[in-house]
TrEMBL record:
UniProt key word Oxidoreductase: yes
Domain Lipoxygenase intervals: 1-115
Gene3D superfamilies: Lipoxygenase-1, Domain 5 (1.20.245.10)
InterPro entries (UniProt xref): LipOase, LipOase_C, LipOase_C_sf
Region (Disordered): 1-24
GO biological process: lipid oxidation
Lineage: superkingdom: Eukaryota
Protein name: Lipoxygenase domain-containing protein
Cited PROSITE patterns: LIPOXYGENASE_3
Length: 115
């Protein structure tokens, strides 16, 4: 389906999905799932696209000086301080957890969606 979200579904299927509820069998499902090679290819692509670049800029990092006005610089500094506080809270909350959750920590959110 073009334009439909594919959450919790494989990126490719070898057979079309069933059109009626209750008629799919386990063998039908297994035959529909992607083979090992295709699954590995998609896993590799997702891994590669989810890595940070060496020169990655994260939220609040602005290397180019586009603004010189004092109120703007103060607002940027306030924003950076709030981001640092959120990062600190997330790190504290993750202390001692088996599976810490860092995905929305500002120090790990890229400043751009460029791939």
């Amino acid at each position: 389906m073009i334009g439909a979200p594919g959450f919790n579904s494989p990126p490719t299927m070898r057979k079309p999905p069933p059109t009626k509820k209750g008629v799919a069998t386990i063998p039908d499902i297994i035959e529909s799932l992607p083979d090992r090679g295709r699954s590995c290819w998609h896993l590799g692509a997702v891994w590669a696209l989810s890595q940070f670049q060496e020169n990655e800029l994260f939220l609040g990092m602005y290397p180019d000086e586009h603004f010189i006005e004092k109120p703007v610089k103060e607002a940027m500094e306030t924003f950076r301080k709030k981001l640092a506080e959120v990062s600190r809270l997330i790190k504290a909350r993750n202390e001692g957890k088996k599976l810490p959750y860092y995905y929305l920590s500002p120090d790990r959110v890229p400043n751009s969606v460029a791939v």
